[in-house]
Write a structure and sequence with these properties.
This protein has 165 residues and is an alpha+beta fold. The chain is built from three helices and seven strands; from the N terminus they run αβββββββαα. It has a five-stranded antiparallel β-sheet with strand order 1-2-3-6-7. It has a two-stranded antiparallel ribbon with strand order 4-5. The termini are far apart. The structure holds zinc ion.
Length: 165
């Protein structure tokens, strides 16, 4: 296991559409383990493969609290199959350091994907978990949370990011 380097904007890999995973093999399993370790180390509650430089459709997440036992999840080729409601919550991203902003997303989602045993998984999530899933699946399409802000807010953040760089 290893803690991987987290790619930050403006790295190109964060802006590309990630490839479907065709075979769930040992390489994928060990990448998932490394991604979980990287996520807990950061610390974060979700991580998508493009964030560690791998343009493939793999996400890990755990909406943990420091006092809880870890409850790690791995999802391969995840797809949102239903969404419902609206919710606004503040978000940040390990790949966009120093920025937090309120983002509008669906309150409830159904997500289908596969686990490391090639078993199909259907997740029904709401609230924070639904948000994490939408945020991470966005990463697989090269979309960052700052893209989902109003134009005015996005411009402000862009200016701030340019100054930080
Ligand atoms: Zn992110």
């Amino acid at each position: 296991m290893a803690v991987l380097e987290i790619k930050k904007i403006p790295e190109k890999v964060l802006r590309s559409r990630a490839e479907e995973i065709k075979s769930i093999n040992g390489e994928i399993a060990s990448l998932a383990q490394d991604m979980l370790e990287t996520m807990y180390d950061a610390p974060g509650i979700g991580l998508a493969a493009p964030q560690v430089g791998k343009p493939i459709r793999l996400i890990v997440f755990d909406i943990w609290h420091p006092e809880d036992e870890p409850n790690p999840h791995v999802l391969i080729n995840p797809v949102i199959t239903a969404k419902e409601g609206l919710d606004v919550m503040e978000e940040g991203c390990l790949s966009v350091p120093g920025v937090r902003a309120e983002v509008k997303r669906s309150y409830r989602v159904e997500v289908k994907g596969y686990d490391l045993n090639e078993k199909e998984v259907v997740l029904e999530a709401e609230g924070l978990l639904a948000r994490v899933l939408q945020h991470e699946i966005d990463h697989l399409d090269g979309v960052l949370f700052i893209d989902r802000l109003s134009r005015v807010k996005r411009e402000l953040i862009k200016k701030r990011l340019r100054r930080m760089r």
